[in-house]
Amino acid sequence: MVYSHNPSSSHFAHFVLSTTTLIICLLILPRSLNAKTSPHIAYLDRNLLIADRGNNRIIEVTPDKRIVWAFHFEGLPPGHGADDAFFSPDNSLIVANLEEENIIVLIDYASRQIIWQYGDGTAGAGPNQLNSPDDAYILPDGNISVADIKNCRVISISPDKRIIRQYGSPGRCISGQNYYNKPDGATPLADGHLLITEIKGGRITEINRDGFELYSFQSPAIYPSDAQETTRNTIIVADYVQFGAIYETDRTGHVVWQFGPFREGSRRLNKPSLAAEMPNGYVVANDDFNHRVIVIDKATHEIVWQYGVTGVAGDEPGYLNIPDGVAWPNDVLTRITATPMPTKEPF
Length: 347
Fold this sequence. Notes:
1 helix; mainly beta
């Protein structure tokens, strides 16, 4: 299988080729100034990286809804694209896990080329094998962490493709001390710990580098997905079900805030797989089977920004198809000036 990028995609932040001279401005502004510049910036003060799985692509979108970077996975069956995509600590690389293909890839942001791959494409637990990898991250030391769902483990992989740490054990899919039942999330924390989310066990657990459990609690979600920590040491977790919800809990599992479940209307979520609190305090989430990425005002419980048309899959500008992952550049307020794209949504 051969992967390649789409050469027609323009990287507006780096270059523009045209017979007419264009000036593209990269603004790094304080949040307060951005908020006065555009209504979008009040809710979203940075670009978002979206793993648009159904379209077999990863795109970077500005607050005013322009695609400024894209990578296309060529030669894949429909819907086999990246489930997640995250920046490296210095934003020079993007790591993406392709759950259906049982591989992880590293993409060079500047050249849009795959420069590293782990997994031979077959499901397994042997050398260079994975079984439904999810939530791969590039760690500060250069290693790659990933939740290997059907192998019931979380592993760290070195650049030379050695497994240097393993938590859980293939064939031991149970929920308990040092064992994990279908982990679908393993979020790295600032202190080097991991926050592990289990599908079948329903637990959310923080472990240190040695695998010691610091705390563990039962998630309020029916199908907990990709738990994320906030700056207040609370936990935000998405509930990946048809009438989905987003919960914020303390470290005992007590719910301190939630969005949904809603049975109808524009706020109804359909299998949201990742939600996280952004530095500005708003919650971003990918609402997979509503084909949209949304930003939620926690105070009003309203959706205040959206990319994608609710319930309509597509690949044209302004549309998504099962977006399964969302992230943002590390420690950067980035906005590339552009004319807002037409949208059918009131956001």
